[in-house]
Design a protein that fits this description.
The complex is a heterodimer of chains A (about 325) and B (about 375).
Chain A: H1 2-6, H2 11-46, H3 63-73, H4 84-100, H5 119-127, H6 129-141, H7 144-175, H8 180-186, H9 192-195, H10 197-211, H11 222-225, H12 235-260, H13 275-296, H14 302-330
Chain B: E1 7-11, E2 23-29, E3 32-39, H1 47-51, H2 56-64, H3 71-86, H4 92-121, H5 125-145, E4 154-155, E5 158-159, H6 167-190, H7 193-199, H8 207-212, H9 218-221, H10 229-232, H11 253-277, E6 295-303, E7 306-314, E8 322-326, H12 328-333, H13 336-340, H14 348-355, H15 359-363
Antiparallel strand pairs in B: 1-2, 2-3, 4-5, 6-7, 7-8
Helix pairs in contact in B: 2-3, 3-4, 4-5, 4-11, 4-14, 5-6, 6-11, 11-14
The chains are: A mainly alpha (about 325), B alpha+beta (about 375).
Amino acid sequence: MHELLMSPPSWLHALIFFVAGAVLLAIVLGFVTYAILADRKVIGYMQLRIGPNRVGGRFGLLQTVADVLKLLMKEDTIPEKADKSLYVIAPAIAFIPAFAVLAVIPFSAHLQFADIGVGLLYYMSVSGITTIGILTGSWASNNKYALIGGMRAVAQMISYEIPLVMSVIGIILMTGSLNLVDIVMEQQQLAFFIMQPLGFIIFIISGIAELSRTPFDLPEAESELVAGYHTEYSGFRWAFFMLSEYVYMFGMAALTTVLFLGGWLPIPGLGFIPGVIWFSLKFMLVVFFLVWLRATFPRLRADQLMEFAWKVLLPAALANIFITAILKELI
Amino acid sequence: MIRTEEMLLNVGPQHPSTHGVFRIVIKIDGETIVEAKPVVGYLHRGTEKLAEDLEYTQIIPYTDRMDYLSAMTNNYVICHAVETMMGLALPERAEYLRVIVMELGRIASHLVWFGTYLLDIGAMSPFLYAFREREVIINLLNEISGGRLTFNYMRIGGVKWDAPEGWIDKVREFIPYMREQLSGYHDLVSGNEIFTTRVKGVGTYTKEDALSYSLSGANLRCTGVKWDLRKDEPYSIYDRFDFDVPVQQKGDAWSRYRCRMGEIEESLKILEQAVEQFPEGDFAKRPRVIKPPKGETYVRIESPRGEIGCYIASEGKKEPYRLKFRRPSFYNLQILPQLLKGANMANLVAILGAIDIVLGEVDG
């Protein structure tokens, strides 16, 4: 990949990049399709239900496909009083970064789209753009519920991005690099979730908050705000918002795997199983954890959420950096 | 200087957390509620007016549709009022059957409240767990009355059907099962830090407030007033049972939650004793002609939501001259604007949900 990027541009390169991009997109969409199904199935079983079981056999394997097709075919409605151009562009702003961040995730030692030096920083900063899309959408809908939902979403995402970034500084200190492959290779002896337990907990919590999933799903608190920032959205535009949410779930779970669970590295003694399988196992564990939380917890209140970010998570993250720095100096 | 202004937000009548078709117009300053105006009446069906043209027995199905989550207590209050006017004495078995179905209904009603309240707070699963237990109760009531929600089970002078064979045993089996599930609820919800921080200190009012707003049920008992008509003005055969009235002191949503969960346990105690003492005999002694003598009566009983009363003015005819229900949800709702004033927007559903209204009852 590196050589390709360095060589002079030609039509062949354009073709390779296009195909590679399309393949990644297909993989991610394929995952998202089944992540949604898994989400519904797992929650279903936890809640004494069966979940989707009609479309595509007993396990509802084609349920998501059917849902997306339905959304595609729905009438495209734009509220009369909405800011039309912003309303149309907002889902795209939210959606594109969700895919862009996946470029830097190393799925195995060789399977990575872009191996850039500041991979971690890239992820954090690009994922922040989605917030703009959400705010744009909520503002453009010209709906009070959407506006409140959008405001909450933005406040929440900005607040939680800080402890999220802070929590990984411990890892950066220990690795000495922002490159995700370097970070994985550093975990050959011991995964970072053992070496950085505090950082791991903070990362998981703020990661969930970034994803706006239960117990931090305030932006779309349906019991209060109907549907939050996408109240007015329907059809494919709404699907874009939901897809970006699920793609972020994919991204965040992958990032957690890379940063704390040792990426594609096997459990010692089981090295004969390929890295990609290890990656997906660890990754699915994280996804399952997220779904599990959603089935168990109630929702925090907006002010409690903010308090928690600034008064608990941020000091804890700072303490983690401090402790890591001292330990690194001593050992 | 930024110019700010209050925002007028219309919540309902088609809003997921208003528990039916309740509408509330709130003025918010940022996230703080400045003013709240409840608008009721979207489900008004004129039960009381309709009743004036109906014979007493024909009114009973209408009462099912008032507080549709505990239709049995509504059935009871109208029958009780007529029986009081006519001075009817019921067979023992009828009294026991009535108490058993009412207490089952009370548990079912509190389960729905528990589930939907948690849904308001943002937890999805407890709702489905609560409905699993409720389903058992509904099946029991279905077996005895033929209905799942609107039972139309009680008649003046007794009940419509006797308990089918083995029914009492099923109720007996249900009691330990429910106890076990209840402890599961406490594990999942009552100890949850997020839940307790959401409800503690939310929607607080004092004993004086509660009394001056004429609140009843758990809404009153959460402020420390030990008032339960089953204990203080025993009707039916409630004086034969040994049970407590759960009381809390703080007057917040958490206290109301504790009260209601405690009431489920107490109802189970009553059920346990009622099932043990269940007598043989007739299940009804229905009078041939139902014509209460000329005069007025007001009776009141303890419904899951509070004090439900029935006033009948009779002219000695088959139909009442005037019928009036004191519907506890309607009275309990009156304190809402006061509670919401100055509250955080996010507490709106937590406060509204804790009052436990049923719109069929609010609107009559």
